[in-house]
């Protein structure tokens, strides 16, 4: 392998030591992988269990709705996106008080895995490089190893792991259907029911760096806006920098919505 990353090296170290591992797969995984084949590939790599991070998103939604119920007068900016959280802290510090301080799906999933599979190494696999910072800087106590899809593809290549016919019989060890829309812009708002609980003026859905900065500048002057569902990547997490696919945003969006619809 000509090039590697600290995270790939750490995963190979886990594999070499035959550590007990749980893969936590972000709900955008379908952009680069096939289901359920990815489950078998991860298990042949050395993972005992494979969890769907959309289950963590269920907890994120519960926490956000509880916050809205407890403080109906509040105005909130959603916080699953670590890039947005860091942008606010660095460039819009006056909005830190508006951040909805709830667990991101990754963090919520890590806590679930920690309780269900104590002693197992938690490996999050997703489309976002900023998740590495979230894990290492914001929640070091959870000891989450974060890899992107690009890194996982490299690992599969080195280990010569591909799909088999038997993989079609597999499924997630921990799963959730309703929140599979999370990686799409507006997925949080829709899956949490905010789109039905609030009026059009009370919530907004924003993605893409330019629009993100624009709405954050405007936020203080929008008193009716109670919940801002915001993701830094254009179109949402389906356009993360750790994704390999060159498919159009529409094609990526369709893969996610189709998977969600099949599970309903």
Description of the molecule:
It is a single chain. The chain is α/β, with parallel strands linked by helices and 264 residues long. It has one domain (6-263). It is built from 11 helices and 7 strands. The chain has helices at 6-16, 37-45, 54-70, 82-91, 105-116, 130-138, 149-159, 187-192, 194-197, 209-218, 249-263; strands spanning 21-25, 49-52, 76-77, 121-126, 144-148, 203-207, 227-231. The strands form 2 sheets. It has a 4-stranded parallel sheet with strand order 2-1-4-5, sandwiched between helices. The N and C termini lie far apart (41 Å). The model has no long low-confidence stretch (mean pLDDT 97).
Q: How would you concisely characterize the structure shown here?
A:
By secondary structure, this protein is of the alpha/beta class.
- How big a fraction of the residues is strand? 5-15%
Q: Radius of gyration over alpha carbons?
A: 18 Å
Q: Could you give the distance between the termini?
A: 41 Å
Can you give the helix content as a percent range?
40-55%
């Amino acid at each position: 392998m000509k090039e590697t990353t600290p995270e790939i090296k750490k995963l190979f170290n886990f594999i070499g030591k035959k550590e007990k591992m749980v893969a936590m797969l972000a709900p955008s995984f379908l952009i680069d992988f096939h289901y359920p084949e990815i489950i078998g590939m991860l298990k042949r790599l050395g993972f005992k269990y494979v969890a769907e991070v959309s289950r963590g998103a269920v907890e994120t939604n519960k926490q956000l709705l509880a916050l809205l119920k407890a403080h109906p007068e509040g105005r909130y900016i959603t916080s699953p996106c670590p890039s947005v959280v860091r942008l606010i802290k660095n460039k819009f510090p006056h909005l830190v008080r508006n951040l909805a301080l709830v667990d991101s799906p990754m963090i919520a999933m890590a806590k679930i895995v920690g309780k269900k599979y104590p002693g197992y190494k938690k490996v999050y696999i997703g489309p976002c490089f900023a998740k590495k910072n979230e894990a290492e800087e914001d929640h070091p106590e959870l000891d989450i190893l974060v890899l992107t899809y690009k890194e996982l593809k490299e690992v599969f290549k080195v280990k010569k792991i591909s799909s088999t016919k038997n993989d079609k019989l597999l499924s997630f060890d921990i799963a959730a259907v309703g929140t599979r829309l999370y990686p799409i812009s507006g997925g949080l708002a829709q899956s949490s029911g905010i789109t039905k609980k609030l009026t059009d003026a009370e919530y907004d859905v924003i993605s893409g760096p330019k629009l993100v900065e624009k709405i954050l500048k405007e936020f203080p002057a929008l008193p009716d806006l109670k919940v801002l569902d915001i993701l830094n990547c254009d179109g949402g997490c389906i356009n993360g920098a750790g994704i390999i696919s060159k498919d159009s945003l529409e094609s990526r969006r369709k893969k996610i919505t189709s998977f969600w619809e099949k599970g309903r």
